[in-house]
Amino acid sequence: MTIPRTLLTATLSATRSVLLLCDEDWRIVESFTPSIEDVFDRAVPGTRLPESMEARLRASPDADVEVVLDGARGPQWYLVSRLPPDPNARPAHQHVLMVRDITRQKRQELSLVNDAEFSQRLIDSLPGLVFLFRPDGQLLLWNAGLEEATGYRREEVAQHSVLDYFHEQARDTVREQIDHVLRHGQGQNEGLLRHRTGSLQPVYFRTRLFAYRGQTCLLGVGTDMSPFKEAAARLEESERRFRAIFEQIPNIAVQGYNRHREVIYWNPASESLYGYRHEEALGRKLEDLIIPEPMREAVVGFITGWANGGPAIPAAELDLQRKDGSVAPVFSSHVMIRNTRNELEMYCLDVDLSELRHTQRQLHLTDTMFRDIRAGIMITGPDNLIITLNPAFTEILGYSAEEVVGKEPRMFASGRHDGAFFHELWQTLQSTGVWQGEIWNRHHNGTLVPLWMSISAVREGTGDASHYVAIFTDIGQHGLVENPSGLPALHDRLTGLPDRALAADRLARTLAHGERASAALMVLDLDQFTQVNERFGHAFGDRLLQAAVARVQDCIGHTATLSRREGDAFILVLPDVRHHGEVSAIAENIIVRMAEPISLDEQTLVSSFSIGIALHPENGRDFDELLAGADIALRHAKVSGRNTYRFLTDGMNTAARERLQLQNELRAGMQQGELLLHFQPQIDMISGLIVGAEALVRWNSPTRGTVSPARFIPVAEESGLIVPLGEWVLREACRQAQQWRAQGLPDLTVAVNMSTVQFQHGDPVESVSRALIETGLPAGCLELELTESMLAEDSGQLLTSLQRLKALGLQLAIDDFGTGHSNLAYLKKFPIDKLKIDQSFVRDIGNDADDSAVLRAVIQLGASLQLSTIAEGVETATQLEYLRSQGCSQVQGYLMGRPMTAEAFAALMRESLGVLKAATA
């Protein structure tokens, strides 16, 4: 059936289509459409098809093609389809084409594409993380920020759920957030975004409802919180570090005040300086705590003005007020800051000037004495060049400061002393630090002047001399020279005794009788004289020396010569000794006589001598040899506990040489890194956990092998090496304890032994502070072990040092408690935290009733004084159970672990933690 032309034309018009009949050359033969220009303005019979359309049709003979043609109304899109030609038509049509106008459709599609591209570009340009998803979680949009944050491209996440990109533990929270937004229209939350590598990123999200293409969606905008959290962590770490410094620094009192001048921070040094505990000070006003009444109004005015934009308070020296009302001289500096809440806070850093003021007064007094004293004073440096001198020097020797400063003292040489004299002088000065005696110097006018001179070496903490101080008087002016042309017979002004030179002369006369001559030389050293001087003053000490000399003279015959060597040391020459028993009887008589109390200035005390004895000819041929031998014997007397005497023997000489060699090897070993620390665990009796470790020094000598501390520690103490050795042990123990903390092991207390010598010849507070700051170890993790004898001999300075140490926050323990001068008085006086029970009481638990009684008493004493107790030397289960039954706090010994290397100790800690976790699982 043939379709009427009118119907075909109407149909094509309705569909905005054109039916074209073309010949074999693609020329239009006939077209069917009522208004052909409206649809296809080039479809004119007799014209050829547009080239682009013809090319597309030739290239795709079996498919429909889309063609874009430029028309009067702009680009027009057409869909061209091939229809089968009518074979009966005359002439035959080679090509039958249906051309449909799809411009409107294509423009709508392009509009949608452009909208989507614009939306994507828009969210890609936004900072942060942006995504759009449906209520069921399906993702619709995903910006470049999220691509970078998750590692997933937007093509990969299409059709996926937003939940897939959050950490598993956060997904329930995200679902709750979606429900909340659907109910309330918006919400906010923090979650962990998961990267495709598995890493997690903290993100803060704001989410709200959003209409997109006719459907309800949720728009999420997130912020990566990693930089903020890292910055917060750094800020917290910085605050923790600086707070730790302020908490541990012993010499700077730091206080913080709010805008109303109320205390918000009060470090331990402030407690020590002003006397208020942290709890007492918090919340109280500055002016009510430490500002003296006359200053309060002015101080309040200055602070108020500063807070309101006025001038800052300058740093200055101030006399503030302690809790007890006493004056606290300080150098105070101030800073005003705003905290994270934008509130004003003022911090004060106060340095205690008490010691400085005292030092200034002492320096002023010393300067006055230096100028006004009638004795000549000359000070040289380590290079033996003169640095300064006082006016009396000029009066005695006639030289002005300009003439001698920068030169050597040899310019005054008289020529009366040979090289042996100066060699002996220098040797004595280097070995003892002091030389006294007569010396002849040359005056500026050329005359010779006899001087009584005392030279002292001023030593640094390292033991090296930094200066030498020579003090002298002109003894020729006072008739003290018996024979200017011969050997002078000089006497000590304080005691009236002859000096060392006269004692040597007396001994030389005795020994002049030849090999058959017999004599003894004693060196007497007054025990603990330094402590007496420090406690009661030098005037009291001088009277004690006079009383001691009188008692010694009561014990010797008229043929003996007692001379003052220096300070509290004396030389006793006994000629014509018939046998050793005679010498022993004199020494014992001196010791018994000195045991009687001495009353001076309403003070009663008991003193004693340590005595060393050398015999001629067994121990020496002349005065110098006998004196050196007596000094060796004296050291043995002191080691034996003082208040006794010892003879020099061949064994003593051999031991002295051995100790000197050991001392030199130890010094070299310290420099070459031959020392190391071992650690012995300390166990809590209740929990059974390792709570501490005692640091024990070991020496692996390349020549001697492992050297026992019992051998080298006494040598270190006698030689002064214990000061650098102790500092090394302290620093290394703190470093190791901090390293364990950094490795994740639980905090424990590391115990370090402190020698009396470290307190006498150094500043242990400065050493401890430096070790804590350099290693970062909290002070609460450090325990210092002191001996009972150290506390019993205190002169007052030790108490100050221990109080400063406690102010750092560390712990103090008494080592080997019960073996020395146990005294309740010093337990109450000193800031002690722990008593360490000596192993001698532990060893005989169950076998010795006396030791068991002492042990129980010590534990009960500790409990009553609120001190913890630790027993050392625990080796059996019986000992452990007994100590537990008596309430001992901690134990230490081979039963729990021998001293071990740091690595082995860490392994033991991890093993004990593993057992604990398994037991509590």
Can you give a write-up of this model?
The protein is an alpha+beta fold. The protein contains 33 helices and 36 strands. The strands form 7 sheets. It has an 8-stranded mixed barrel, surrounded by 4 helices. Strands 2-1-5-4-3 form a 5-stranded antiparallel sheet, sandwiched between helices. Strands 7-6-10-9-8 form a 5-stranded antiparallel sheet, sandwiched between helices. Strand 16 and strand 17 (386-389) form a beta hairpin. It is elongated, with a radius of gyration of 49 Å. It starts with a helix and ends with a helix. The relative contact order is 0.04.
Contiguous runs where pLDDT drops below 50 for at least 5 residues: 478-489
Q: What is the tally of beta strands? A: 36
Q: Whole-number radius of gyration?
A: 49 Å
Any idea what the shape is? elongated
Biggest pleated sheet: 8 strands, mixed, barrel
Percent helix range: 40-55%
Helix/strand/pairing class, anyone? Answer: alpha+beta
Number of helices: 33
Strand content: 25-35%
Amino- and carboxy-terminal Cα gap = 93 Å
* Average residue pLDDT: 82
Side by side, the strands of the main sheet go 28-29-31-32-33-34-35-36
